[in-house]
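Can you give me the bound-state structure? Components:
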Amino acid sequence: MHELPVIEKILKVVLAHAAKHRVKRVVAIHLEVGELSDLEEQWMQHYFDHLSKGSRAEKARLVIERIPARLQCAQCHETFLFVTVSDEGNVCPVCAATDCRLIAGQGYFIKNLEAL
Amino acid sequence: MSDEIRLIEVKEEIFADNRKVADDLRASLQKEKTFLLNLMASPGSGKTSLIVKTIAGLSSEIRLGVIEADIDSMVDAETVVKAGVPAVQLRTGGFCHVDASMVNKGLEGLAVEDLDLVILENVGNLVCPAEFDTGAHKNAMILSVPEGDDKPLKYPLMFSICDVLIVNKLDYMEFSDFNLEKMRERVLRLNPDIKIIPVSCRTGEGIENWLEWLRLVSGQFAVGSGR
Ligand SMILES: Nc1nc2c(ncn2[C@@H]2O[C@H](COP(=O)(O)OP(=O)(O)OP(=O)(O)O)[C@@H](O)[C@H]2O)c(=O)[nH]1
Ligand SMILES: [Mg+2]
Ligand SMILES: [Zn+2]
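Here's the bound-state model for the whole set.
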């Protein structure tokens, strides 16, 4: 639901880097997005196309990699993949403990740009 | 002509600057000895009702203020002011969440130096507010019985970032198949440190446990209070 503020921020960061490196045009933007972050990739591109009009990043492609959510066992500290929507999952594969902390799967990270 | 594609490394976290604003806010409020609580929940789960109960229970001992962020309407802020404490209504402009700089704005409308505890009623939704650090010292959420005990499965992020979970509308339990034990198990699989407090804002059941938790955490900043 908050694609717009996220995209505004991404564009700002991208344009700052584009200016610093004196690029003519940004072609693609590689992003990492947590699996649990709520956003629609289509909407992100849509908002991006709209906001980037007339800038060096106009028509750049968003390449989004979703980062899987992970849990850490509170007992033995083993980390493992989070199974969404399930009562059976979320059990430590090593010690079978069920008290676990969510340690990954949220946030937005700009990895790099492809530019001309 | 150098029309070759170059790879430019960025490596930037999108919310890094919000986190910085939030950290600064937390620190400056702590210096003022003002405790900020971020209260999140679905629409209608009882956020305003819980705030009103909290005012009734604590305002004789703790100086309270409220920031209302829920949609652009004055209804909740008016309810809170009627209950006897200062409140500001944030203009969120249809935003789905509150971030730390919005909270900073809201705090300008409250005399923070005269307050011990500020409660932020966040926008009603279990998804977006979980992704934004508001600068609060603790995160609280409400799950009300009519919403169902499966919510930890559907909104894992929200349950994983909260310090306390208030299960409201206990009086509704007899009309519902809500299984408190099952819900507890589901929540602890995401967040073993969370404190779970069942209450009813209607009957008052469990409210004392909530007030006790709030006294304890917000009392951390008070000096010479004997706590
Ligand atoms: N039965 C029952 N009803 C409750 C309880 N707590 C709140 N309500 C009712 O639930 C409705 C919504 O309560 P609010 O306190 O306005 O909830 P809210 O989360 O602030 O709602 P919004 O700000 O509109 O999202 C009201 O009609 C309350 O009277 C409770 O413990 N039991
Ligand atoms: Mg309300
Ligand atoms: Zn383990």
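A couple of observations. The first helix of chain A runs from residue 3 to 20. The radius of gyration of chain A is 18 Å.
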